[in-house]
Amino acid sequence: MNIALSDEGSESRQDREDRLYRKITLRIVPFLFICYLVSFLDRINIGFAHLEMTRDLRISEAAYGLGAGIFFIGYVLFEVPSNLLLARIGARRTFCRIMACWGIVSACTMFVQTAWQLNVLRFLLGAFEAGFFPGIVLYLTYWFPPRRRATVVSWFFAGAALAGMLGGPLSGWIMHGMAGAHGLRGWQWMFLLEGVPAALLGVAAFFLLVDRPEQVGWLTDDEKSALRQALSAEQQEKRAVSAASVLDAFRSVRLYWCAFIYFALACGSYAISLWLPVMLREAGVKDVLMIGMYSAIPYGIGALGIVLISMHSDRRAERRLHFTVCSLAGSAALMVVAAFGASLGVAGTLATLSIAVVFVYAAIPIFWSMPPMFLSGKAAAAGIALVSSLGSLGGFASPWLIGLIATRTGRLGDGLYVMAALMIVSGLSVLIALSHATRLRKALA
User: Which InterPro entries match (predicted)?
Assistant: First the structure.
């Protein structure tokens, strides 16, 4: 659907529309992108701390997996209330609260001495960060119509990959270069130096963000009118299939199906991000600095692949096949790592992990273009948060199960098979379900 910005020809309208969304993108996306990059770095840096923390604190792989994953229990419990609060008090205050609190808790992880202390702080980190990503997804629905969202959201998942690309060398450098400074371990310095920026960004969010498009001064009246028209048309299109209330959102079978799909994606993505340093160590890289440097390669390739695949999905206005191919290809790469492990060598492990990062991470923004199509109003805030919170349990299940299985069998790869299987089921589920929905719409037309 083109926005009627003028009475000129269609080409001129398209140019004006593109210019409008370019302006919006440049104004709000870069800052949110940096915030999400920092949030993801604080979420996964425990994967690098694991290289030394488990030895220093004398905790098992299973205990590490529980500590890494319990983040998502706090995240799930507080995510829906946080997103509903955003709809009530606005993005500025919500993002300020979230980032300032998680930054402080992340920095305090430097003081842990026991497994239970790690569990408490990881739980609190999840509770304070709850609502941040679904809040971003909801906030973007105030600015972009559905057909532009997959590309926009893809930039944030490219941010997740970029966090791995930058965070790996940064974490490795801090742990290597700061070890022993002022009597602190390298992993303690890492938590401190990577946690403080989040708190500072939280303060900045209060001054740099606005709650709604109508409040900004950098859009003309015509541009605001065009944006309202596009978003109003979206609401009209959704009414026939939308839940009209928060209660209906919680009753929607489609949302629980979406939650399962996201659960499988979370299992696959966190199998990579929380265990990638260990995979590299098993492949033969022993120095923590070099592990950090090598880890940048899969994430760097992944960041480019995420954006390109999402843009292609938007241009074709096609989600089903794109998602299915990404899920199946990502699961295949995980199974290769599981089957061959250290025998792949450093180069083979990096190549296979690069394929896994590209396809597993690229599936996520394609997925997130679907749930906002089902809901409007307050139901959108609750529904998006519900999908994200239930699906995020995969972030708990993945490291916990992999750590538990690795402790009992001595093989990291055995747990990866389980994560790959979940992604295969999710890909085939989308392929079948959306194919059936397309045939039904054609039959009713």
Answer: MFS, MFS_dom, MFS_trans_sf
